[in-house]
Amino acid sequence: MDAFRTAVQASKEGVLLRVHIQPKASRTDCVGFYGDALKIRVAAPPVDGAANDELIRFLADRCSIPQAAIAIQAGAHSRQKRVSVRGVTVEWVVARLMPPSSERTR
């Protein structure tokens, strides 16, 4: 589970996520791993920050935290992003985001 350890790491304030997003999907959801990152499909185009906004909304909604607790630290204009999520634990994020093991991709 090396991809998991790289994709979701504990930090002083919460969790750091490595995320690979796929914009313009039919629905927003976490679908597993893409290399060493969580793969999240977002139902928004990569125009004017819409995909980033949808990513933040999705993470906040799934983790039951305010959107202000989530920040894109790197990769705002890329599919590969580093996202900080304050006020949660690795276990909390995994339980809320990860699909059942039978649906995980690699």
Description:
The protein is α+β, with helices and mostly antiparallel strands. 26% of the residues lie in helices and 33% in strands. The protein has helices at residues 2-7, 50-63, 90-97; strands at 8-10, 14-22, 29-34, 37-41, 70-74, 80-86. Strands 1, 2, 3, 4, 5 and 6 form a six-stranded mixed sheet that branches. The longest helix is centred in the middle third of the chain and has 14 residues, at 50-63. The radius of gyration is 12 Å and the shape is globular. It starts with a helix and ends in a 9-residue tail after the last helix.
Q: Give me the Rg, rounded.
A: 12 Å
SS strand fraction: 25-35%
What value does the average pLDDT take? 89
- Main pleated-sheet profile: 6 strands, mixed
**Helical stretch count?**
3
Q: Per the principal axes of the C-alpha atoms, what is the gross shape?
A: globular
User: How would you classify the helix and strand content by structural class?
Assistant: alpha+beta
Helix content: 25-40%
Runs in which pLDDT lies below 50 for 5 or more consecutive residues are 102-106
Order of helices and strands: HEEEEHEEH
Number of strands: 6
What distance separates the N and C termini?
A: 11 Å
